[in-house]
Structures are given as structure tokens and as C-alpha cells.
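Support request from a user on the community tier.

User writes: "When I paste my C-alpha cells into the form, the page sometimes reloads and wipes my input. The last time it worked, I copied everything first. Here is what I submitted, just in case something in the input itself triggers the reload:"
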């Protein structure tokens, strides 16, 4: 996310010494790991799968990917899924979060022809998980729009895609209703819209900063809501499952006690997460986002706000479309208010009007974009409780990247230990209704624009070996033991 980022040395916040919580995780607390189709499956055009916007992006714009790689083979999980499931089982995890590739089920994105080989792949995967007594948690859309829908309609800028997504979702509910009970409609809409239709830094690369991304936000919310209602009306009674959209944000801690900086923190979190969370949990866009975009739009000479209106009917349709709150979170910035930026081209960053920065002594993984700031997660969880009510919260992603791929990944262990400790603090000290924690990830993957240069797996994948061998890192044993003992230190108390 491109807010202005400065690294300054104003003051430092001590992190490393936060004490690790010594309570046990509650007995019914669940642990899992997450992955996504594009990042691990490979088999990009195998057995009838259609092309996605990420296949197209990597094939046609190799310079956009750090190592000019493609997701063509990735971890080869299309062929090695049994091995992945065995690793999940060996770690003693309750569930495995994975995504279905829209274009493996519907190669053109349209509901005219179901690709039976694609259906078989997921059926086999679900059967393997059942055998291993591991529950699937299934994302329907993890950024992999079928390329024809981008070519024909302009992707998420066109409302037609709202209906097509709902039809695809319905097909999945029908096909997999005996296999799946935990559903996710869409993963991280902020990245889809801001990077894909705002800055254009990610597939499909549409540059429409401060304009397209808000149109995308509206359509993606409607798509999520439509899929939710289809589930609610036609499948819930029989499937007895649950469904939500994954929202995400970095935490932005006020850079000082001043009112301006407190407001800057609230404002940026509302732009990053509230843009998607508020319509679902409270109804309508966050007021501060409505006000800021209207103000800037007017000064820029727009006749109406760049933020599309949600009608009363749309507000009512989107509000309440959740069975739980699904959250991805990785790291934290400090944030200060700034003077109003000069009027120029529309821009999401100037709409937010903050400066974000990190004290230089915050630890991070080697070469990582992720600073290790466990208390940031706790502050975010408390913010969510305050802002959306005491919803059940499911952490659907959290983890540390590094660019070395080392097997001796002590940083990753201290990341997990610190963030899981922050979860315990939130549960026991703040009364947050957090029930589930998902690590990203069990195996290395194709990290979108970072290709195969950023590693987040507890197992290393050798991407130059045709076998794509998986080798445990130190963190795999640590995490396995943590799941078994439900405790972050040597001895825990109830
Ligand atoms: C969030 C995304 O959902 C996931 O696809 C990605 O790999 C992780 N962040 C780590 O970068």
C-alpha cells in the first residue's frame, strides 16, 4: 500500500522485550495454515484450466516480477497435494486454508462449461483432507480473475463481474457442499482494488489511482454480498457452514498523543480496512472516507465524489453479510497527520493524508517488508472489537517473510511466538472473541510480484528441483510443538 513511508528516528518503541504470555490457548481454539491456488498449484494450463490475470501478467510483463518468474509450476501442488496434506496432518493442525481457482472450474470465467478435471482435482484434495481429519477452509477468490473477464469487461470495474462471481460461487457451493463448511468469498479486496485497479502495480495493472480502485471496491463488495446471499438463501440450511470475506490491514499506531495523530491513525485504518469492513459490519462506507474523498474530489474539479455512492438498497444488501470476521494481518507502521497535500491528480494516498514510518530499531526478517511488532496485532484486534462489536474473529493469515530462505529461521519463530502471545493477550486481557489462528504459510510459494524471492514457509520448497522437494525449517518443529502443547513457553498456566 503506498502511503508516504518515511523511516525516521523520532523515538523508538521497545518490542523485543514484550513478555510472552504464559496462559494456555483455550481448549477449542483452532490452528491452521493457509495457501492460495496461484501461489502453489502450478498446472497453470493443465487439464483444461483457463488463463488467469496473474498467468497473463507474468507471461507478458516479466519485468513486473522480481525474478521474472511465473506461477506455471510453483510448488506443483496440482500433482503433490497429497504431500502437502501429509505435512498439514503431521503438524497436528485443525484445518487447511486453500483457494479454488475460478478458471480451473470455469476456464473462461463464464458458467457455460464446468471443467470436470478441475472439479476432480478439488474433490480429490478434499477427500485427502477428510482422510487426514483436517478441515478445509476454502477461499473462492484469491486474486486470480479469469483473463477473459478482464478482456471482455475490464474485470472488477464492471458490474457484470459481480453476477459472474456469484454464479461461480453458486457452482462451487453446489459442487463442494458435502466437502466444505468454512467458506471465504474474497481474499484481501484492498490489494485486488488498490494494486490491480489503482496504482496498477499488480495484475491486471490498471492505473486509475483514486478512481478505479473505489469503483472496484464497490463491485467487489456487491460480489461478496451476492455470493453471501446465494449461500444464505440456497445452501446454508443443508450445508450448515459459515461464510465471510477476508479483510486485511497493517496496524497504524498514532505517532504521538496529539489529537491530529490519533485521528490520522483512525483515518488510515478506515481507508485501508474500513472501506471494506464498514459496509459489511456497520453499513455504508466509513464517514471519514466519504468526507475526505468528497472534499478532495470537489477541489480537484470533479462534479461528484470519486467514491461511488452506495444506495440505501445497496447498503442494506451488503450490511450483515458475515458469519465471522476474517482478518489477514502482518505488520505495523507509526503514523502522523500531515498538512493537506496540494491538489493534483486524484490519488488514494493524498485522500488518506497521513505519513507512515517505522523506527529503525524495529526488528524484521532479513530483507522482509514485515517488521515484527506483535502489539500492533493486539491493538488492531481491540480496534476491531470497538468498531464492529465483539464479533468472532478468525485470523486467516499472519506470518513472516525473509529473502534468504534459511532453514534456521529463528526470526520466524520469534515472530510466531510474539504474535501468538499478542493473541492470548487479546483473548484473556481484552476479551476479544478470537477463536482461530492461521499461519501463512506451511510451504514457500510464488509470492506474486516478488516471485520466488520472498519466503514465508515453515517448509522450504526447492524451486530449482523438478521434484519441488519440501524441507522443514526450524519453525516447523516449533509450530508443531506449540499446536500440541497449546502453549508458547516451556510451562503454561490455565
Ligand atoms: C497476503 C496474501 O493474501 C497472500 O497471497 C500473500 O502471499 C501474503 N499476503 C504474503 O505476502
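"...and here is what came back when it finally went through:"
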Amino acid at each position: 500500500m503506498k502511503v508516504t513511508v518515511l523511516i525516521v528516528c523520532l523515538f523508538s518503541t521497545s518490542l523485543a522485550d514484550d513478555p510472552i504470555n504464559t496462559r494456555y490457548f483455550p481448549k477449542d481454539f483452532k490452528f491452521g495454515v493457509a495457501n492460495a491456488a496461484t501461489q502453489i498449484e502450478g498446472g497453470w494450463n493443465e487439464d483444461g484450466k483457463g488463463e488467469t490475470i496473474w498467468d497473463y501478467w507474468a507471461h507478458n510483463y516479466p519485468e513486473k516480477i522480481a525474478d521474472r518468474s511465473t506461477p506455471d509450476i510453483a510448488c506443483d501442488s496440482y500433482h503433490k497435494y497429497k504431500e502437502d496434506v501429509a505435512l498439514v496432518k503431521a503438524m497436528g493442525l485443525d484445518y487447511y486454508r486453500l483457494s479454488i481457482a475460478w478458471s480451473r472450474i470455469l476456464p473462461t470465467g463464464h458458467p457455460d462449461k464446468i471443467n470436470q478435471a478441475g472439479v476432480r482435482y478439488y474433490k480429490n484434495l478434499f477427500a485427502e483432507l477428510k482422510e487426514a481429519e483436517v478441515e478445509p477452509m476454502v477461499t473462492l477468490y484469491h486474486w486470480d480473475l479469469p483473463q477473459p473477464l478482464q478482456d471482455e469487461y475490464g474485470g472488477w470495474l464492471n458490474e457484470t463481474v459481480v453476477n459472474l462471481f456469484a454464479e461461480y460461487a453458486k457452482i462451487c457451493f453446489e459442487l463442494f457442499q458435502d466437502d466444505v463448511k468454512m467458506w471465504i468469498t474474497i481474499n484481501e479486496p484492498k490489494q485486488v482494488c488498490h494494486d490491480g485497479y489503482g496504482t496498477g502495480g499488480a495484475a491486471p495493472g490498471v492505473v486509475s489511482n483514486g478512481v478505479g480502485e473505489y469503483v472496484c471496491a464497490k463491485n467487489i463488495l456487491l460480489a461478496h454480498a451476492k455470493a453471501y446471499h446465494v449461500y444464505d438463501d440456497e445452501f446454508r440450511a443443508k450445508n450448515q457452514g459459515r461464510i465471510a470475506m477476508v479483510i486485511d490491514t497493517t496496524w497504524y499506531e498514532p505517532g504521538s498523543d496529539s489529537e491530529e495523530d490519533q485521528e490520522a491513525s483512525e483515518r488510515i485504518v478506515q481507508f485501508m480496512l474500513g472501506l471494506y469492513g464498514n459496509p459489511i459490519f456497520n453499513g455504508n462506507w466509513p464517514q471519514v472516507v466519504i468526507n475526505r474523498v468528497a472534499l478532495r474530489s470537489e477541489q480537484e474539479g470533479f462534479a461528484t465524489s470519486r467514491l461511488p455512492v452506495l444506495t440505501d438498497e445497496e447498503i442494506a444488501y451488503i450490511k450483515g453479510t458475515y458469519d465471522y470476521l476474517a482478518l489477514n494481518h502482518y505488520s505495523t507502521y507509526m503514523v502522523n497527520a500531515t498538512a493537506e497535500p496540494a491538489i493534483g491528480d486524484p490519488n488514494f494516498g493524498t485522500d488518506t493524508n497521513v505519513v507512515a514510518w517505522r523506527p529503525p530499531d524495529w526488528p524484521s526478517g532479513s530483507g522482509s517488508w514485515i517488521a515484527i511488532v506483535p502489539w500492533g496485532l493486539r491493538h488492531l484486534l481491540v480496534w476491531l472489537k470497538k468498531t464492529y462489536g465483539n464479533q468472532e474473529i478468525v485470523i486467516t493469515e499472519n506470518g513472516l517473510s525473509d529473502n534468504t530462505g534459511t532453514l534456521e529461521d529463528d526470526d520466524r519463530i520469534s515472530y510466531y511466538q510474539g504474535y501468538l502471545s499478542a493473541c492470548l493477550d487479546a483473548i484473556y486481557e481484552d476479551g476479544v472473541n478470537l477463536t482461530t489462528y492461521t499461519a501463512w504459510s506451511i510451504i514457500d510459494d510464488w509470492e506474486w510480484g516478488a516471485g520466488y524471492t520472498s519466503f514465508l514457509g515453515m517448509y522450504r520448497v526447492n524451486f530449482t528441483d523438478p521434484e519441488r522437494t519440501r524441507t522443514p525449517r526450524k519453525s516447523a518443529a516449533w509450530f508443531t510443538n506449540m499446536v500440541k502443547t497449546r502453549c508458547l513457553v516451556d510451562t503454561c498456566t490455565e
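Agent notes: The reload is a front-end session timeout and is unrelated to the input. Residues 2-485 form a domain with the TIM Barrel fold (CATH 3.20.20.80). Residues 212-239 form the longest helix (28 residues). Escalated to web team.
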